[in-house]
Amino acid sequence: MSEVLDKPNVLQRLLPMVRGYDWPLIFIIGALAAIGLTAMYSAGFDHGTRFVDHGRNMMLALGILLVVSQIPPHRLASFALPLYGLGVALLVAVALFGVTKKGAQRWVNIGIVIQPSELLKIAMPLMLAWWFQRREGALRATDFVMAFAILAVPVGLIMKQPDLGTSLLVMASGLAVIYFAGLSWKLILPPVLIGAVGLILIAIYGHHLCEDGMDLVVLHEYQRQRICTLLDPTRDPLGKGFHIIQGMIAIGSGGFMGKGFMAGTQTHLEFIPERTTDFIFAAFSEEFGLAGNLLLIFFFLMLVWRGLVIAMRAPTLFGRLMAGAVAMIFFTYAFVNMGMVSGILPVVGVPLPFVSYGGTAMVTLGLALGILMSVARSQRQLVQDQPPRL
């Protein structure tokens, strides 16, 4: 009889699994997921099973988040080198005998067709955080040089495919880790200034760049065309400029309060291309207006802020670097997607987290959030395990 009374019930078994979770982060994730489902229902209700599949992808990401959050950060660090090595090996396989679709060689068939560059979005910051963790307290300039080399290999292979959007995301996640590891401002400012000067020169002399017959060695032709389309989308309004023009029309027509849920004419008359994937922000803006955009941007900023708070409180260097990198990954995703749809950045294939349709991207985000939650749990468990002060 005593054995029956002592046997823990289901709630008692589940309680240790959820103890230490960061509830403000969970609330923010839930709010963004609700916004994403609402936007997908409207944009994709007449687009096959997109809404149902989007919900399924979210549940899959939630499952991955819960599983990964149970793994302590020091155990996650042990996966860094194998994942990075596997990712680079698969990228080399893509370069040698990859599958080509729509002019890009980004996939490889290993029984199933996969896109290895997606793995590097997480493997890259994981590898660099592991690298700096091993050198904690004895960092030298050569360690940062090696870190840039570790970052350059996959970024170069991804750009060669070509896949500018994914290479930017991988590079941003890696640079975030290197910056948080303590890179000096003296080394950061020169490339930032060079980039700013380059943007100014493009804005001033961009018409020469877009002249017929112009061939730039440093850019692929499709990249040159994207820059030219950004500078003047009306130069090809029914072709390369169609995406940007329709996106700006949808955003502008939404006004302050929007046209209303499922009442977007640009969306449902199919003027917005890729309205359930890369350009869903335009569909959302048309129906919910500036007010809805401000709410969406607020929750993204809250997610980034919460990630940085978790990074500051992390008990180890690895945890701080990974949490900071995950926060900047979400910032980069949201900033690049909203920027390209609004016409202030070139059009690249970057989805809007929680809102855009996409199984692989959703799984990657679930993995990133699981790592962030793991770091948060490790900090809270460390506080709980400390003996009380007398």
From TrEMBL:
Give the metabolic or biological pathway.
Cell wall biogenesis; peptidoglycan biosynthesis
Known catalysed reaction(s)? Answer: [GlcNAc-(1->4)-Mur2Ac(oyl-L-Ala-gamma-D-Glu-L-Lys-D-Ala-D-Ala)](n)-di-trans,octa-cis-undecaprenyl diphosphate + beta-D-GlcNAc-(1->4)-Mur2Ac(oyl-L-Ala-gamma-D-Glu-L-Lys-D-Ala-D-Ala)-di-trans,octa-cis-undecaprenyl diphosphate = [GlcNAc-(1->4)-Mur2Ac(oyl-L-Ala-gamma-D-Glu-L-Lys-D-Ala-D-Ala)](n+1)-di-trans,octa-cis-undecaprenyl diphosphate + di-trans,octa-cis-undecaprenyl diphosphate + H(+)
What EC number(s) does the entry state?
2.4.99.28
Instruction: Give the InterPro entries listed for this entry.
Output: Cell_cycle_FtsW-rel_CS, FtsW/RodA, RodA/MrdB
Keywords attached to this entry: Cell inner membrane, Cell membrane, Cell shape, Cell wall biogenesis/degradation, Glycosyltransferase, Membrane, Peptidoglycan synthesis, Transferase, Transmembrane, Transmembrane helix
Q: How does it sit in the membrane?
A: Multi-pass membrane protein
The record's subcellular location field reads:
Cell inner membrane; Membrane
Asked whether the UniProt record includes Glycosyltransferase among its keywords, one would answer: yes
Keyword Cell inner membrane (UniProt): yes
Q: Which Pfam families match?
A: FTSW_RODA_SPOVE
Q: Which PANTHER family match?
A: CELL CYCLE PROTEIN (PTHR30474), PEPTIDOGLYCAN GLYCOSYLTRANSFERASE MRDB (PTHR30474:SF1)
Q: Which HAMAP family match?
A: PGT_RodA (MF_02079)
Q: Hey, which family's this protein in?
A: Belongs to the SEDS family. MrdB/RodA subfamily.
Q: What role is this protein assigned?
A: Peptidoglycan polymerase that is essential for cell wall elongation.
Name of protein: Peptidoglycan glycosyltransferase MrdB
Task: Give the organism the record lists.
Answer: Comamonas odontotermitis
Write the lineage as a comma-separated list. Answer: Bacteria, Pseudomonadati, Pseudomonadota, Betaproteobacteria, Burkholderiales
